[in-house]
Specification:
Layout lengths: L7 E9 L4 E10 L3 H17 L7 E4 L7 H12 L2 H4 L11 E4 L7 H14 L3 E3 L6 H10 L7 H15 L4 H18 L4
Parallel strand pairs: 2-5, 3-4
Antiparallel strand pairs: 1-2
Helix pairs in contact: 1-2, 4-6
Length: 192
């Protein structure tokens, strides 16, 4: 098996709406069974929620092969008592915590990535934690893009950007996120 192929990527991003910057705060990328992917999603959600960072959306790639993840997250979250993730609304709304990323079957993966995050990278508006878990994977994919053997980590980042940019937050909520990150920065974040 190629260690670069068929990797699942779970990330945590924050958006600073005043500057347009995306902050890549966490990353988990492994070749694992679906159960481990679901647990990684819940673990990351709980980690950042406990740090006081408001979480607006948990995004899932909206393709047939990934649609199993939503009910699995809800069931596993209920078993762990993470009720915010376990809640299932009667009718989906744009404000729901769990959202499916929109995909365009006509668009190649590399074009989607370049269109969604290429401009942020080229403009210096994508900040990545210096001690980001799996940082080596993120850096390798970025350096080799669009010819990287795998772009799973960049793809996850691009999808997350899609949710951030279409999400309209109240300015007070954005300020709350900035304050939490500022107070946690010395302990958790070292930007390059």
């Amino acid at each position: 098996d190629d260690p670069q192929s068929c990797r699942s990527a779970v990330g945590f991003l924050a958006e600073d709406t005043t500057t347009g910057s995306l902050l890549k705060l966490d990353l988990w990328a492994k070749q694992e069974k679906p159960e481990q992917v679901v647990q990684a999603i819940i673990d990351m959600y709980e980690k950042w929620r406990k740090l006081g960072v408001p979480i607006v959306h948990v995004g899932i790639e909206g393709v047939a092969g990934q649609k199993y993840v939503e009910p699995a997250i809800r069931s596993a979250a209920a078993l762990r008592g993470v009720w915010q993730l376990a809640y299932r609304p009667m009718k989906p709304r744009p404000t729901d915590l769990i959202q499916f990323y929109k995909t365009d079957a006509k668009l190649k993966k590399q074009d989607r990535i370049a269109g969604l995050i290429g401009w942020r990278i080229n403009s210096g508006l994508l900040y990545v934690r210096a001690d980001l878990p799996e940082r080596n994977l993120f850096d390798a994919e970025t350096r080799r893009f669009p010819n990287a053997k795998s772009t799973d980590v960049l793809d996850e980042t691009a999808y997350a950007e899609q949710l951030c940019s279409r999400n309209v937050r109240k300015e007070a909520e954005c300020e709350e996120i900035r304050e939490v990150l500022k107070t946690k920065r010395d302990k958790y974040v070292g930007w390059l």
